[in-house]
Design goal:
A hairpin with a 2-residue loop joins strand 4 and strand 5. The two termini are 33 Å apart. The chain is an alpha/beta fold. Helices cover 24% and strands 30% of the residues. The strands form three sheets. Strands 1-6-7-4-5-8 form a six-stranded mixed sheet, covered by helices on one side. Strands 10-9-11-12-13-14 form a six-stranded mixed sheet. A two-stranded antiparallel sheet has the order 2-3. It has eight helices and 14 strands. It has a domain of 128 residues: Cytidine Deaminase, domain 2 (3-Layer(aba) Sandwich).
Length: 284
């Protein structure tokens, strides 16, 4: 694929060069015996991230300020803003207010005029809470609940419970941020043999998935055999994103909703849930 120009621009008026994904804090730990002691903890950062296409803000999501270029590209693909990663011709991550209560980020993406015109026609002002996927949609039709069928994936017939569960055995160990803060979701990519090759984290489950999809797109790996694993419940938005990018199988530690199941059935996506060794359920 063509190279995508990516740049990061910290706020020039502040000394800190980048927004940190975790923040240190001193808290009081209370014990059942009445004793109290001071303890150092870390909290996951949650900041507004504006996704700006050709100079026009399209969405503002609350996200962890890490892997934001991947997030923007994954969002553009999974939401149908562009059809190929190479159409995100330039990505600039701008960071503001590092070390202040007004921390925020803006990711500017340059896309072809035809996609920008289409985006303006169906533009939605998304101001999302953590992981919220539909805030600001102005009509039920905009939900896009009828995915195109996923292409046949011969390798998927060999995908058994042991293989699906294999990446979950190491997924938590690969969550470096969550191990320190305890409040982040993870989205991982597993090969058809169950090898976990990528893990991306965010306070929002949709954001974590978009970061993963963006990472795969930048590496030219979208379309290769493999499946997505996640630490969250299976919401319809996650299934919709995977179906749009022709991902043939999706597995999570929790159960799907009825709408998620409906979309998976319509798309022909194999949906695994309650993946908690030694068992897993396959819904589709």
């Amino acid at each position: 694929m063509s190279a995508i120009e990516i740049s990061v621009s910290p706020d020039p008026d502040l000394p800190a060069p980048a927004l940190a994904p975790l923040r240190a804090l001193q808290v009081q730990q209370f014990h059942a015996d009445g004793s109290v002691q001071s303890q150092a903890v870390e909290l996951a950062a949650e900041v507004p991230v504006a996704l700006v296409f050709n100079g026009i803000s399209h969405a503002v999501m609350m996200a962890t300020p890490q892997d934001l270029a991947e997030f923007a590209i994954g969002f553009a693909l999974s939401e149908g803003v562009v059809e190929h990663a190479r159409e995100c011709r330039e990505v600039e991550v701008q960071q503001h207010g590092s070390g202040t209560p007004d921390e925020s980020c803006a990711v500017h993406i340059d896309i072809p005029p035809r996609h920008f015109m289409r985006l303006k026609e169906r533009r939605r002002a998304l101001v999302g809470r953590t992981g919220c996927g539909v805030c600001g949609i102005d009509s039920l039709a905009a939900l896009d609940l009828h995915p195109a069928p996923i292409a046949a994936a011969p390798w998927r017939a060999q995908l058994d419970a042991a293989t699906v569960l294999r990446p979950f055995e190491t997924l938590s160990q690969r969550q470096s941020l969550n191990a320190r803060a305890g409040s982040l979701h993870a989205a991982g990519w597993a090969t058809p043999t169950g090898e976990l090759t990528e893990v991306l984290e965010d306070v929002g489950r949709h954001n974590a998935l978009d970061k993963l999809l963006g990472r795969l797109a930048l590496a030219g790996r979208l379309g290769e055999p493999g499946f997505v694993v996640m630490t969250s419940r299976t919401s319809y938005e996650l299934v919709r994103k995977c179906a749009r990018l022709q991902i043939a199988a999706f597995a999570t530690i929790s159960a799907p909703t009825t709408l998620a199941l409906q979309l998976a059935q319509e798309a022909g996506l194999h949906l695994w849930g309650l993946c908690r060794p030694p068992t897993a359920l396959r819904y589709v």
